[in-house]
What we know:
Blueprint: H1 2-24, H2 31-49, H3 59-76, H4 82-86, H5 92-115, H6 124-144, H7 152-171, H8 179-205
Helix pairs in contact: 1-2, 2-3, 3-5, 5-7, 6-7, 7-8
Amino acid sequence: MQLLKKQGLFLFWLLLILDCAFIYTQNESYRLFTKPLLVPILGFYIFLNARKNHYRNTKTLIFFALICAWLGDVLLMHKQTSEQILNKQTDSFFLFGMLAFALTHIFISISFYRIHKLKLAKCQEAFIATVILIVVDSFLYQFIKPNLGGLKIPILIYMFIISVMLILAVNLLGSGLRKSNATNFFIPGAALFVFSDATLAMQKFVFAEIDFLSII
């Protein structure tokens, strides 16, 4: 445990770089070892270094969020066969993986809301983020919609959930005590999550032949 407490972040970045290298070189079999370790190592590092009583009301929610994220990672490692893709058959592993990540975003959203509730008089940043996300989400959905098949409704629901998570992260800018953490950690992390999932959607439904997009 001391190794994870002191060197957990280094181990996480090392595994992440290796995982990206395996994607780039198409060594998928090696990812069976690297991918499932990423979230547990990061989770242990966070909890071992967390201050006592720091965000104590959200600790359980973050714990469940990380479990769901790990489960989503494992499920999304499954790849459809070429025949399934050509026949537009629904990938149940992708669907359940998306569900697991949707739960991750729900737990994180509740955590953000507990830290700082939405107040109509002080939600200018959240309002701006909402407008931007409506435009971006609409463009992305129209771009991938022709290839979604039976996943149109699940994808729409997922986009709504992850967008709410980012909006609640931006809303933390209205909290004086948490503004620094929001700027340095919460908002960049939430934005990267949205960007990563958008890239994943484009790679899966539009640019399936470009393996490099999986790295993002």
